[in-house]
Amino acid sequence: MSAIAIRSARRLCQEVNLNLAYRWFCGLGLEDKVPHHSTFSVNRHGRFRDNDILRKVFEEVVRGCLKSGLVGGEGFAVDASVIEADASRFQRVKGSEVDWTDEQRARRPVSEYLVALEDENPPVNPNQKPKAMSPTDPSAAWTTRGRNKVMFGYSLNYLIDLENAVIVDVEATPTRISKEVDATETMIERTEDRFALKPDRLAGDVAYGTGEMLGWLVKRKIDPHVPVWDQSEVAADGKFVRADFIYDKDRDLYICPGGKALKTSGTVHDGTTIKYIAKYSDCAQCPLKPECTTGRERRVSRDVNQEALYPGVDGNRGLRHLQG
């Protein structure tokens, strides 16, 4: 029985009304009345959400797969599908500040968004303001990752067991990479709590190759099979990149191609980055400065999870155990 192209409650009710297989599956006779499509919307935003029934049904299916031996538990993969929000890309507010009217505040998506801003995990990035916001669905993220060049969207994040491609957890987030990383941590912890499953390894694409994500996995002894996402190794205007600087772990400093030291105060910026700075006097008289920086002195950033990004080899671009 296929549910392909059924994208709305209205269409679902039409199919159940006409298709005998759907009627049989739902326990409806030929003369039984099919519920009105609005019933699904009311229940989805009401009692289904309040009592978490849909997650309970999902997890019961996963338990059935476990009992049948379809889930290995040793290796997981993570990925996200982008879903277009029910919000016009042509009706948007630039930036993140909206002067909400009383009428807008009374609408469910807006009221839930305003409440969620006070949560520990708000729908927006604390360190990066959104470029645009939907006045009808403010939790949706302005993204270029969908079928249109730009749109408002959500990500449906999947945690998949590699034995038979069984989905063991799902989490919806706005389409923001940082939120997808947070969702991965949530799904792994929840899967361990609900099913006592903790993978030995996790596979994912480059979106999950941040220092934060890799560091989190390594601390929990989960081997990441993920390409490293490190923009600091991309050359700008032909200048030296961090890979050209040698890190001295014992002294916690970098040595530049000219042999001078870049030191740090140890301050962690934005929770993830440590900055190393050369002396102005060293840079001012250095013959390599045209190849190094146009600023007063050269600066190099290091992720606090650098060892997780490049275990055993500092500063080299590449994959984090991708070949497995």
Write a structural description.
The protein is α+β, with helices and mostly antiparallel strands. Among the domains are: 1-51, no CATH class; 85-154, no CATH class; 233-320, no CATH class. The protein is 30% helix and 21% strand. It has eleven helices and 15 strands. It has helices at residues 9-18, 20-26, 37-45, 47-51, 53-67, 102-105, 108-116, 177-195, 211-219, 280-284, 306-309; strands spanning 75-84, 93-94, 132-133, 141-143, 151-161, 166-174, 201-203, 223-227, 246-248, 253-255, 261-263, 268-269, 273-278, 299-303, 319-320. The strands form three sheets. Strands 1, 4, 5, 6, 7, 8 and 15 form a seven-stranded mixed β-sheet that branches. Strands 9, 10, 11, 12, 13 and 14 form a six-stranded antiparallel β-sheet that branches. It has a two-stranded antiparallel ribbon with strand order 2-3. Strand 4 (141-143) and strand 5 form a beta hairpin.
